[in-house]
Design a protein that fits this description.
alpha/beta; three-stranded parallel sheet
Length: 333
């Protein structure tokens, strides 16, 4: 069996080791021991040989803990997929001038893990001491100063909606390219916290549109996407069709594995893959489906099998937020 050539993103979770323990990290089942092998990466490149243009996202865990493997992966992508983009997600603790020069040379985009001011970041990214927080900020500024395109995803927890404006303005003060303000996935959203997020997001969008600041609010996940799906490669070599499945318990998540990379071959879960492709085709019969809506569609598939009432309620309010954000993005941005 071959994969669909219509791959949107290829998320490569190169390792599940990390120095931090973020309470809203969607990679909920990290062993903190696994790392992709070079053989599995070769199999991935073979899998993607007929895909011309794709958005690669290198993530973890913390990918900089495996820098040599990351650098080799970036070089390989550049040789095999020169038209594709590469985004590196990092907590920035181990970033250095030498790594920044390498990333800039290979035109890698950088998504640092920072949610704004120290209090908010340390509250949810556990392990972020004041020393580490200052180092993260210094390294973000260093990357911006080196001419890299830097855009953090500012994750907002339901209990921290009141700090959205202050956190956005702080990140903007570092002259990052743009900021994606995103509600924490599968967090305990309520009707009240969802309404507060939506109203504050509306104000941020108006501010971003009117201000002379270089940094703008990013509407990229509200834009329509063409039919396709993701490849989400775990450090074990297992592959999912979207990142949201990572958030669910293994007994639910594992039902959505579509492939597995070994050092010398690729195993397809063919019937499962065909079933999901059929569901995606039905979804994209609607016009204007955004990437967030595609992701929420996948999450809903898993949610139906999980059936936890509290999580289902929070997810319903999360989807309300996503619908409102799409409307705001398209009207103001």
């Amino acid at each position: 069996m071959r994969i669909s050539p219509l791959i949107k993103h290829c998320w490569i979770f190169i390792t599940d080791r990390c120095q931090l323990d973020c309470d809203y990290c969607f990679f909920r089942t990290k062993t903190r021991t696994k790392t992709l092998t070079e053989g599995q990466i070769r199999q991935l490149f073979g899998l993607l040989k007929d895909v011309r243009k794709i958005e690669f996202v290198i993530s973890g865990g913390e990918p900089l803990l495996q820098w040599d493997l990351v650098a080799s992966l970036i070089r390989g992508i550049g040789r095999r997929h020169p038209r594709s983009s590469i985004l590196l997600q990092s907590n920035m603790i181990l970033m250095t001038p030498e790594k920044i020069r390498f990333l800039r040379k290979h035109r890698v985009l950088l998504e640092p893990g920072i949610d704004g001011l120290a209090e908010t970041t340390a509250k949810h990214r556990q392990g972020t001491s004041l020393h580490r927080y200052r180092k993260i900020c210094e390294n973000v500024k260093m990357a911006v100063g080196a001419g890299m395109e830097v855009f953090p995803t500012m994750t907002v927890h339901p209990h921290d909606t009141s700090a959205m404006t202050a956190n956005f303005k702080f990140l903007a003060s570092m002259n990052v390219s743009r900021i994606d303000v995103h509600p924490a996935f599968l967090a305990p959203w309520t009707a009240d916290s969802a309404r507060d997020f939506i109203e504050r997001y509306r104000r941020l969008a108006a501010f971003s549109r009117s201000t002379s600041l270089k940094t703008k609010l990013c509407p990229c996940y509200s834009r329509p996407m063409a039919f396709g799906h993701d490849l989400v490669v775990l450090p074990s070599g297992d592959i999912l069709p979207n990142w949201t499945f990572l958030t669910f318990p293994p007994k639910i998540r594992d039902k959505f594995f579509i492939m597995k990379l070994d050092d010398d071959h690729v195993l397809f879960h063919a019937s499962r893959y065909r079933d999901l492709l059929g569901r995606y085709m039905d979804l994209f019969k609607k016009r204007g489906v955004s990437y967030r809506e595609f992701s929420n569609f996948n999450a809903a598939l898993a949610m139906r099998q999980w059936g936890r009432r509290r999580a289902t309620g929070g997810f319903r309010h999360y989807r309300d937020i996503c619908r409102a954000v799409k409307t705001i993005d398209r009207s103001l941005l």
